[in-house]
Amino acid sequence: MTQPATDPAAKFDTSRASEYARQSRIALAGYDACHDLAACMLAASLGPSSSAKVLVVGAGGTAQEIITMAALEPDWDFVAVDPSEPMLAAATGHLRANDLLHRTQVHLGHVEDLPADASFDAATLIGVLHHLGGDEAKQQILRSIQARLKPGAPLIVAGNHYAYASQPLLLQAWSQRWRQQGATADEVQAKLGKILQGADPPHSEAAVQTLLHDAGFGQATRFFSSLFWGAWLACKIGRRTWVD
User: Fold this and answer.
1) Which UniProt keywords apply (predicted)?
2) Closest CA to 200 of 166, 153, 234
3) How many alpha carbons lie under 13 Å from residue 149 in its C-beta half-sphere?
């Protein structure tokens, strides 16, 4: 497998994977709503009752993207990619429990490890960009996805944006979110420390738009927001492709 110089997947160990389903729903208020709307946005973009092959990048943990899309569109099939073995194992368990393994190809690794001539009708990149350090790594994954999408195909991008320290009120509200769920002050600090570990989100919505534009996508439509989190849909422009 192709490995980046600093692999952010290393922090998603067995301990983090085992608690991900619960913790992610606390860290992101509206976790399920975001995934529900992402499925609706892709279905609206592709058209009703259409068959589709969807690339799901960073599918590890809950596999919620696939579970939600599969329920809405029974004729869609999926390719799930994640570089963390514990997170992908957790996702595989959820897919098995929902009888979706026959509709999903599961790959341990990175987008670059997929065949260069792979062709997808749509893709999702949810909760990934803010774990990649620097614009170069963010551009690499977006370009790798773009190269494997059909012309005009939609991409859902969702994740944290804003430099965390630049938004002290949102950061404090995030702390209160954990307290709201019963965490002590020490637990709140520990949870925030784990979330912020190695995180490098785009610093604004404009930065997200620029990353997408430079990777060959058109203007993105924002459809969800929750504290630091945002979710957008953008479509691949023309026939432009990139070489990994």
Assistant:
1) Methyltransferase, Transferase
2) 166
3) 31
Considering only CA atoms, give the Rg of the chain.
Answer: 17
**Rounded to an integer, what distance in angstroms lies between the CA atom of residue 110 and that of residue 177?**
32
State the alpha helices, DSSP H only, in 55-156: 64-72, 85-97, 134-147
pLDDT of residue 11: 62
pLDDT of 15 reads 64
Domain residue ranges in the chain: 8-169+200-235
* Cα separation, 123 vs 158, whole angstroms: 12
Q: Are 236 and 224 in contact (CB under 8 A)?
A: no
**What tokens does 39 get?**
């499925």
CA max distance for the chain = 52
Q: Domain spanning 8-169+200-235 has what CATH number?
A: 3.40.50.150
Residue ranges of the chain with per-residue pLDDT less than 50: 1-5, 240-243
Q: Which two tokens stand for residue 229?
A: 């989190």
